[in-house]
Structures are given as C-alpha cells and as structure tokens.
Amino acid sequence: MEWNQRCPGCGEEADQEVLRESHDLLLRCSACGHIHRAPRETPAEPLRVRAIVSAGTESRPGTIELMPDDLVEVGDLLVAEGEGDEAAGVEVSSIEAKGGGRVARATAGEVVTLWTRVVEDVVVPVSVHRGRETIPFHQRTDGEEVFVVGEVYTFGGRRVRISHIKLRDGPVLRKEGWKTLARRVRRIYGRFEREETAYSRRK
After folding, report:
1. What's the pTM value of the predicted model, to 2 decimals?
2. Does domain 47-119 have CATH number 3.30.465?
C-alpha cells in the first residue's frame, strides 16, 4: 500500500510506502528512503439523502448518496437509487433544507429532501487519496459510459488511475480490467497519476 504526499525529509511529493499501520502510520519515502510517521485519516461516512424522483407524471421516493460536506445546487446531476437495484440519473430541481425552507444550494448535511427529475446523464462521485487528504470530484457522464479498474481517466482536469469501484448493488471491483457502467457506480476510488507515465482517457 502506498500514499502520495510531501515527504518531511526531502520535501518532495512522492509515494510513501506504508510499513506499519497502528494508531498512526509508519511510512517510507520512495524518493529518499526517509522513514516517518503520519496520523491515520478517519474517512467521513457518506449520507443517504432523501430524494423525490419524478419521471413524466409519476414521482417516487429514493435516496442519493453524498458526503456530508458535498455542496448540492439546483441543476446538479446526480444518481438516485430506488427500490432494489434501481438507479437513475437525475437533475436537482429543488432543495428543501433544514428549517423547512427551499434554497438554491446547501451542503448535504443541511438537506432534508432533494426534488429531482430523471435525465440521461449521471454524475459519478470520485474520491482520490493523496496522503492524509481525500480529494472529491464529481464526473458528469452518460449513464452508459464504461469505467475500468486500472485505467487512467481525467477527473477535474487531473489524471486519476482507478484503484477500485464501489457498485450500487454492493460489490467492489478491485481486479485490474474489471469494468462497469457509470449508472451502476456508487463511487470511484483512485490515485493521481504521475504526469510522465500517465495514459489519459478524457471524458
């Protein structure tokens, strides 16, 4: 296992090999060999936000997975889940926040209900780990777009190699070459690819 962060020994941003995990991490810099400690990061747990999904004249309840600090705005494209494995790309048409008011934007932790309508595009959540920092992206794409474990894509203008993909129906794809459709993705996890070695597939 490796983390990418700035080494306190040589000052370079490089992969840090994890030698031991306990209360904190014991790391070794791949650039200079310096061994140092770093605190473990406790990742935030995602929220299941209530959503009303409209398709034509019909509306049904659902949920949308968001991180607590995610900012949601009217017009955002997200993925809503219904009963069973049912999932659909939706556009946010209205946001009901705590206190009972309708707002144009709110963080996920402030949202009571998202009112949405079904659209063809989806937005795939992406989490990239760099050292103790987790950097979130939201990638807009067609629901039938294919994502492959081990390949490099461009998210937010940065090259990211996919390490694993969490699916909406439970499994996690970890083996290189395994692939899935964007509409089935709950979250993509990856790491930044070094510029000199990166192969990029722009979306």
Report:
1. 0.53
2. no
